[in-house]
């Protein structure tokens, strides 16, 4: 069985239509109907509260609706599947308020057209506490529903007031929260520990996704540097993933490839991050500032799995990689005796043709670098960030001045 824990967050759900509540509510005046039911936590703590003052014994008050992202797999829910929750709750004395929870599956993005109901207007057996604390009703058996990929799970939460008092009494639930520890039954840490709803199903509801990917100057090497050329790519997944057995640095990551400027899919090797949400992989070529890079993942050849559920990374096509690389001037600096100038502070400037006529004073222009006093590395490599307007591949003329000994050089180079 696959276990999926979803959090009642304070983030807005998106990409859906429909505002009609599907549960049976006497009071549906709360406008909190658009929050995200998410696999991750990390947003502002909040509460939603509503009151009742009717003498009717069973009075059902809607508080909020939480909507999941589209599920990734077709799922045949059955009576072997279950749901359970722990949510921060608070009731006025004498409210005798109990959970009222209605859970259904949408038809795609249309929340007004349920695919089917998983838990129909379930009324709890335990009164909410009069001091805010985590509350639960234990494990609930779900009904049979055939859900399609891209459907959403929708949870309506409120309370049933079981009293005949006409005084104004209220019920409140907590949502959001950024704590790293999930809320437990009876815990009073309702403003820090996130509340949740957990589903146990035969089929995984969600697969891991690539959230973001990026490249930085500090993670690349040119062909004249150790191990180069290469570019490391930092990938963030929406949940912790791993490969078993654990890969070693340099192992090819099966199924995960990169395309550079629309070229063929090229292999990536593992660097770090197994069992976490933050991986680093390496492409064995120099990638430059004007290159477009995307990632693909093929389940038929890969084995990247969720740590929590063992669900495989979703098939991915053209996941964008943010290119934060700088244009640079990069070369090996040698002195007049052809020896590398290692670990030395130098002055540097870059020039481009202006008129191009050597008989005119304006035949060359000084272009822009981020820093004009830099140091060579231990191998004598000069790498200066170029901030001028010339494109990658353009010819520039680099002037270098050494102070000890006093020497000056001019190189013809290209922007990289």
Q: How would you characterize this protein structure?
A:
The relative contact order is 0.13. The chain has strands spanning 2-12, 35-38, 43-52, 58-68, 75-77, 82-91, 97-107, 110-123, 133-135, 140-141, 145-147, 153-162, 169-177, 196-201, 210-215, 220-221, 230-242, 252-260, 266-272, 276-283, 293-297, 305-306, 316-320, 322-323, 327-332, 345-353, 364-366, 373-375, 381-386, 395-403, 406-414. It contains no helices and 31 strands. Strands 1, 2, 3, 4, 6, 7, 8, 9, 10, 12, 13 and 14 form a twelve-stranded mixed beta sheet that branches. Strands 15, 16, 17, 18, 19, 20, 21, 22, 23 and 24 form a ten-stranded mixed beta sheet that branches. The mean pLDDT is 93. A hairpin with a 2-residue loop joins strand 30 (395-403) and strand 31 (406-414). The protein has 416 residues and is mainly beta. The chain has three domains: 2-201, Jelly Rolls, CATH 2.60.120; 210-323, no CATH class; 327-414, Immunoglobulin-like (Sandwich), CATH 2.60.40.
Annotation keywords:
single chain, 416 residues, mainly beta, Jelly Rolls, Immunoglobulin-like, twelve-stranded mixed β-sheet, 31 strands, elongated
The low-confidence runs, each spanning 5 or more residues with pLDDT under 50, are none
Name of the CATH architecture of the largest domain: Sandwich
Q: Which fold does the CATH topology of the largest domain refer to? A: Jelly Rolls
The number of domains: 3
User: What is the helix tally?
Assistant: 0
Q: What is the highest CATH level, the class of the largest domain?
A: Mainly Beta
For the secondary structure, the number of strands is: 31
Oligomer: single chain
Kindly provide the radius of gyration, computed on alpha-carbon positions and rounded to a whole number of angstroms.
30 Å
Name the average pLDDT. 93
**C-alpha end-to-end distance:** 52 Å
Helical amount among residues, as a percent range?
Answer: under 10%
Main sheet overview: 12 strands, mixed
Q: Which structural class do you get from the secondary structure elements?
A: mainly beta
Shape: elongated
Assess the beta-strand content as a share of residues. over 45%
């Amino acid at each position: 069985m696959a276990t999926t824990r979803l959090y009642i967050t304070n983030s807005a759900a998106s990409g859906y239509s429909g505002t009609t509540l599907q549960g049976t509510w006497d009071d549906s005046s709360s406008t909190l109907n658009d929050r995200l039911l998410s696999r991750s936590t990390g947003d502002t703590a909040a509460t939603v509260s509503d009151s009742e003052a009717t003498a009717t014994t069973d009075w059902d008050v809607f508080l909020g609706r939480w909507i999941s992202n589209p599920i990734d797999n077709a799922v045949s829910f059955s009576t072997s599947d279950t749901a359970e929750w722990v949510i921060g709750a608070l009731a006025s004395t004498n409210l005798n308020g109990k959970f009222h929870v209605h859970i259904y599956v949408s038809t795609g993005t249309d929340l007004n057209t349920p695919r089917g109901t998983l838990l129909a207007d379930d009324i709890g057996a335990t009164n909410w506490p009069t001091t805010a604390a985590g509350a639960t009703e234990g494990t609930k058996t779900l009904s049979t529903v055939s859900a399609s990929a891209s459907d959403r799970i929708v949870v309506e939460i409120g309370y049933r007031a079981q009293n005949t008092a006409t005084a104004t009494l209220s019920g409140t639930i907590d949502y959001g929260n950024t704590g790293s520890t999930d809320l437990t039954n009876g815990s009073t840490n309702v403003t820090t520990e996130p509340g949740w709803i957990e589903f146990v199903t035969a089929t995984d509801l969600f697969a891991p996704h690539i959230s973001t990917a990026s490249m930085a100057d500090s993670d690349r090497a040119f062909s004249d540097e150790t191990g180069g050329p290469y570019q490391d790519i930092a990938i963030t997944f929406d949940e912790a993933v791993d490969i078993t057995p654990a890969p070693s640095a340099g192992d090819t990551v099966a199924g995960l490839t990169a395309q550079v400027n629309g070229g063929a899919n090229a292999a990536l090797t593992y660097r770090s991050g197994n069992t976490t949400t933050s991986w680093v992989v390496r492409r064995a070529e120099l990638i430059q500032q004007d290159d477009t890079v995307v990632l693909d993942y093929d389940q038929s050849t890969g084995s990247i799995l969720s740590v929590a559920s063992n669900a495989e990374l979703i098939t991915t096509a053209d996941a964008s990689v943010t290119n934060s690389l700088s244009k640079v001037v990069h070369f090996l600096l040698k002195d007049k005796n052809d020896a590398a100038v290692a670990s030395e502070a130098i002055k540097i400037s870059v020039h481009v043709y202006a008129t191009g006529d050597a008989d005119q004073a304006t035949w060359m222009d000084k272009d822009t670098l981020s820093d004009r006093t830099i140091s060579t590395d231990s191998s004598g490599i000069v790498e200066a960030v170029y901030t001028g307007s010339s494109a990658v591949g353009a010819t520039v003329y680099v002037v270098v001045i050494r102070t000890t000994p006093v020497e000056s050089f001019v190189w013809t180079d290209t922007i990289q």
